[in-house]
Amino acid sequence: MDSRARELFLEWLGQDLEFIQFVFLLLKRACGIRNIDLVWTQGEPTGRLANRHLTLSEALQAPVLSSLVGLEEGSPDPAYCRLINDCGRKESITCAISDKAAEERVRRSGRSEAYECRFGLVDIAVPVLCNGKQVAVLYAGQVHRRPPTKESFVQIAERVAGLDHIDLAALEKAYYAVPVVDEGEIRRTTQLLEVFARYLGNSWARLEELVQAHRRKARESELAARELAYVALEGAGSDWGVTKELALQAGFTSEPDRVLVVRPVVENGRDAARAFSELGWASVIRTVEEVCEEYGNAAAVYMRCKGILVLLGESRAAGLRSDSEALRLARRIHERIGDRHHLEVRVGVGGAVEDRRSLRRSYQEACMALAASSQGVAYHQPVNGSGETLAALSEEICRMVAARQFDDARLAIAGLPVRVDQRFGDDVARQRSFFTWALSGMAAAAHKLGVDAATLSLLRRQAAAEFDAAAAPFEVQTAYLEAANEVLDEVHRLENGRAASIAERARRAVDHSIEHGPRTISIREVAASLGISASHLSRTFRKVTGTTFERYVTEKRMELAKRLLLDPRNNVTQVAERCGFSDPSYFARVFRKVTGLSPREYCRDPGRAPAQRLAREAFARRVERTRPGARR
């Protein structure tokens, strides 16, 4: 059963609730059968109580309607049935077995059926058919065909013998209280329910047509929004009348004038847009579409390797949307995704453009805002109108790469297409030529830092192929941005690898010095042996290991001290000297600070400081994880 059709069907039932209730009450008045249930037959668990969407119980809760047909309020469910299924709690092992079997029989036959349930009552099952397919069942009955007898109850008692929740005395009393109807009443009830079932089936068919029309319209709107995004961002000089038509098909009341970009937060800011494929972007974009519908005159489009783009048009009420209104929309998207999907995303907000053909600039501004800020919602800053040439900007990016200024380089890379647009407009050939040259400069800078030449050559060939295939400036710029960030990622990876190597070599130097001491160890000596400055070693060591160089030296000295103190031939002064401490008192203070015990206390009972031991073991594991090749 189609879930959307079911939702609309239930909406219709809700709108016509009073009428449906009145029909149920009339049936009750005409037939004397106290229970009527409407139960879905597909995609739901078995059982009336779990699945019924309209019953006589709800109808009897409307006193005015009840009074119109002369009925008193009260539960239509016989006490007998409530005892059998324990008020619905045991329905799956009692009443639902008979109901499910009846549902299958009427599905195969397509005809109504009066049948006796497992526990001796007569029920009626009437199929609700739509185009020959069963979509629901109307159940009624829960009556006796003939007066109950002691002999018949003996049979019932045998059937419920395995049900521990049943009070047999109470069940017998309720069994005799079940209404008795004749065959004529059962037949009339069945005929009336069949008329009502045809009415429900026809309503379902009309609603299915509405659902299909809604789907077609939603699909057309989605395709129009996607095409509108490509046309607007490519800026290929297409007929703006066509673009206006696309905007109308996408649900805009006026052409979009601003772009927002939604991307997930990923480690090191790499492959942000691609991560949606791993993080369930389909459900995320539905959430963004929902927010856009609430705001009006906005549409969300997923574009591979770019993220979710939100095209935003003028407000229906206030004309051109202000920056503050766009920021409110961005914050709502950010909050809704976080609350619903527990996914951390960032939203970049581009500036509004007066010329709707300049939406590419708004997109680029949104990307620049994301590169320039770590905030959840980032707003664009106007492009500096300095007189720097494109060549100077490209050279500045190369300088940032050489200086390992990764954040600044990413921001400059994101901002370069804006300047190129200002300089070359929609001239694809000139943009292709410039970005090819700019990427070559970045590759040369990366190679000087040690990035493998084969890797850089492959990246450049891939970019060249995408440049050649690009038919619009936006495609050329996208190819440049992806390739430039890949080059930057290679430099970043190389730098991280070097940092790990420096930290590992420093650890080995410390370990060797302590094991083969005694002598003091200074960070300057170790840094000099590695050919780097002491400050660079200090920063790198802490970044890689999570601890300072000095603390690592102290920890290793204390490990040696504990081993030496357990040898009865060594006294505290000898151990202090062997570990590089000229003052035994200072050694004792450091030892107590690290272990929680004095050297002599440790000699007597090394196991008295479990907390300190756990802390040291955690420190050792943390250091081991930072070694090259260690499993993460």
SSE inventory with pairings:
Layout: H1 3-15, H2 17-31, E1 35-40, H3 48-51, E2 54-55, H4 56-59, H5 63-68, H6 79-84, H7 95-109, E3 113-116, E4 122-130, E5 133-143, H8 150-159, H9 168-177, H10 183-234, H11 240-249, E6 256-264, H12 281-295, E7 298-303, E8 307-313, H13 323-341, E9 345-349, H14 359-372, E10 377-379, H15 390-402, H16 406-424, H17 428-448, H18 453-469, H19 473-515, H20 523-530, H21 534-545, H22 549-565, H23 572-578, H24 584-595, H25 599-604, H26 610-625
Helix pairs in contact: 1-10, 2-10, 10-11, 12-13, 14-16, 15-16, 15-17, 16-19, 17-18, 17-19, 18-19, 19-21, 19-22, 20-21, 22-24
What is the number of helices?
A: 26
According to DSSP, the number of beta strands is: 10
The CA-CA distance between the termini, in Å, is 47 Å
SS-derived structural category: alpha+beta
Shape: flat
Radius of gyration of CA atoms, rounded to a whole number: 38 Å
Q: What proportion of the residues is helical, as a percent range?
A: 55-70%
Q: State the domain count.
A: 4
